[in-house]
Design brief:
The protein has 319 residues and is of the alpha/beta class. The protein folds into two domains: 50 residues, Arc Repressor Mutant, subunit A, CATH 1.10.10; 242 residues, Alpha/Beta hydrolase fold, catalytic domain (Rossmann fold), CATH 3.40.50.1820. Helix content is 33%, strand content 17%. It contains eleven helices and ten strands. The strands form two sheets. The protein has an eight-stranded mixed sheet with strand order 3-4-6-5-7-8-9-10, with helices on both faces. The chain has a two-stranded antiparallel ribbon with strand order 1-2. A hairpin with a 2-residue loop joins strand 1 and strand 2. Helix 4 packs across helix 5.
């Protein structure tokens, strides 16, 4: 009975594992219905016993058979979502509180010749019990080292929201000469970062998450789920706050910037995205994409087409 439940969960792309006596899971938002959450709570003890029986008994985690993980120094892992023998590599940095599975739909949307590589930092998904980064400097150092060690290929750094701020710091650190583009999606630049968000109460932080969108209400309302994602989100927001810079302290990258804004995004609208223009010495362009703050998860095909289009050469100025 429990094996059949695990198989059903696996077939619905639910990633589930046990660690230190606790049950952990991750799944697409349309799968985590109230009924699914109730099922996990009701069968928690049985699932824990089954998953803790011994090594090799855990259901396959997404990426174990379809992706390749590398673990350079610094605790950052790279998960290859799509492969290409050569050509452009797109390193994807998720938003605050999120992990690489947010970009799982891109596997079917990447154009030929584009290799999509997801950055998997500690503190989320199946790395939930690992200590997350709380400052951008060591995180950017680790990601830059991983990018430098990936191979001599032209590459793009794509950052969603907080990921864009981190991506800016990564490109200030990489030694490889293959950088072609920084893509900032649903993000404001460092001089527009506001502080004290990480210090919000749990209630205020949950209210903010509801306003941002992208997280199903049933997850926000479920104590088991909240206990999983709030610590990671709070740590990531500390990383964001460490990226803040005064308006007169601009540190531009020497690659073009392509700023993407969601047409319905009230938190990082086009007017804010345009402010990234000062953060590049090599050209800037902004583009409006359908959707709200989490548009990158749903618009992979359009985004990757734009990336492929602009990564080949200088990005002209203007929107």
């Amino acid at each position: 009975m429990i094996d059949q439940l695990l198989q059903d969960l696996r077939s619905n792309n639910v990633r589930i594992w046990a660690k230190e006596g606790r049950l952990h899971f991750d799944a697409p938002k349309d799968v985590m219905t109230p009924e699914m959450l109730a099922l996990l709570r009701d069968r928690k003890e049985e699932l824990l016993r089954r998953l803790e029986e011994g090594p090799g008994r855990r259901p396959a985690v997404w990426g174990e058979t379809t992706g390749e993980e590398r673990e350079p120094g610094g605790g950052v892992r790279l998960k290859r979502l799509t492969t290409a023998a050569d050509g452009l590599v797109v390193f994807v940095l998720p938003p605050a509180g999120a992990g690489p599975s947010l970009f799982r739909p891109w596997a079917a949307e990447a154009p030929e010749g584009v290799e999509v590589v997801l950055v998997h930092a500690p503190g989320r998904e199946d790395r939930i019990h690992e200590r997350p980064y709380r400052s951008v400097a060591p995180l950017a150092d680790a990601i830059a080292a991983a990018v430098d060690g990936y191979g001599d290929r032209p590459f793009v750094v794509f950052g969603h929201s907080a990921g864009a701020l981190i991506g800016h710091q990564v490109l200030l650190r990489v030694r490889s000469g293959g950088a072609r583009l920084l893509v900032t999606a649903a993000s404001t630049p460092p001089d527009r970062v506001v502080g004290d968000v990480a210090a919000m109460s749990d209630g205020d932080l949950l209210a903010a998450m509801a306003a941002w969108g992208g997280t199903p209400d049933q997850l926000l309302d479920d104590p088991l789920s909240r206990g999983e994602f709030l610590p990671c989100l709070r740590a990531d927001l500390q990383v964001v706050e460490s990226c803040a810079r005064p308006e007169d302290d601009v540190e531009p990258v020497d690659v073009p910037v392509l700023a993407l804004a969601g047409a319905e995004d009230a938190f990082a609208p086009l007017s804010e995205s345009l402010r990234w223009a000062r953060w590049s010495t090599a050209g800037f362009r902004a583009h409006l994409v359908p959707g709200g703050h989490f548009f990158p998860a749903a618009e992979g095909a359009e985004i990757l087409a734009l990336v492929q289009r602009y990564a080949g050469g200088p990005v002209p100025g203007g929107a």
